[in-house]
Structure prediction request, 172 residues.
Amino acid sequence: MSRKRTQNGSKRTRGRRQRTVSLSLRDRGQTTQDFAVGIGVFILAVAFVFSFLPTILTPFDSSVSGGQTAQADRIADRLVHNLSDSDTSPNAINDTAFNETDGELEDRVGLRTAGDQVSVQIEQLNESETVNDMVIGDQYNGQSAASSARIVTLDDNPEGCETACRLVVRVW
Prediction:
């Protein structure tokens, strides 16, 4: 194929293509400062992810097992059922029966001795103070424990517990 050209060059059958402009980046490359800033931002992002990730999983990590939580709930239910006067109210606990339970806690609530320790306290509703030293079972010292609470009334209506009290069972 040949092109047709005229002698004077003024008439052409085909137009001329425009020239492409290309830039050369040979003179400018990645500098040391660009590299340092990029790596610094990357390291900060990775550090943030690794420091934030454990806080997402923390609520699901517990030293108390589900079995201990169920056991504390079951013990609280049995104590309220066994110590209450069913004639007056289902949650009215007989004080003398509660104090006599100390030696036979395992028998009264059907507790299997699987190495778990149990503490039962009757506390005031607005504070964590025990009412008249009404504590049975092992001594609780603030360690990690599964707990269950029930609102109860006492027959004698001791001071600080006129309206209602809280029966708290802790298993660890």
Summary: DSSP finds four helices and five strands in the chain.
